[in-house]
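Structure catalogue
Derive tokens from sequence
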Amino acid sequence: MFSAAAQARLAQLGLQPGRPNLDEYSATLIELARADRNIVALTSDSRGSGKLWPFAHALPEQLIEVGVAEQNLVGIAAGLAACGKKPFATSPSCFLTARALEQIKNDVCYSDVPAVLVGISAGVSYGALGSTHHSLHDIAALRAIHNITIIVPADNFETREAVRAAARAQHPVFLRFGKAPMYNLHSPATRFEVGRAIMLRDGSDVAFIATGETVVHALLAAAELAERGLTARVLSMHTIKPLDTQAVLDAARRCRAIITVEEHSVHGGLGEACAAALIQAGVHVPMRIVGIPDEETVTGSQADVFRHYGISMEGLAETAETLISAI
């Protein structure tokens, strides 16, 4: 996943490897479900990829398997939520948000039931399986539907807090997880609040506003830029909707440029949400949206795809230097 230079930076920053966010999701969900029998997990033949086998063994009566039938998954979750249960419907994000989009829109969001939709193996997590299994549309599709919160955690801490917040939520929530082991970016004392970005590093030359598995690469790029005499602010924008507009505006007013970073299409995701916030506030700042461009996505591992599209320490540092030099 990381180049030798990036691995050296990880060591320099003292960042320790954690486990994949899906493992953290499963462990947190078991903890919550043991205390509340109304919490149930649903899967579409994805208890393995969703790391829910431990849940199935620990709480078999609180797990529902619907098979490869995403529309049924969401419809059943909506019905359970309407009856007082707290369902966590887990499925590969590429299928969950495409095959079951109408059910998400009508049965969950428009009906305003407190179901939690969990999109797993998101972005390009499936790597060499190719474009059919890449989930580069999910955030864009769900942002266009009212009454749903969208959270994309960047590490195990954010995952734990996001799952707990989703369990408390009275309205629909979408959680988005990848597959890679995550680096621990936060101290235990960090405050997590839905709709509020977390600043990992401050700076005034460029602001990286990143989400999910791209955040660590932005943090590494900031450390690389520091060696070149440039300071970078790094924000973990874990909540895409509602967006922390104030954090975006503060970054624009305090930094010379903004770079958004996401494991998603450049259309309809974090970058365009930030750009819209800036335009509507009348704030003008040089900006780049780093993500997957509008083309046939290259096939390869997640690391290969990230490097190809500049979602890496080296790629983001180069983008920042180019952007700042043009100001």
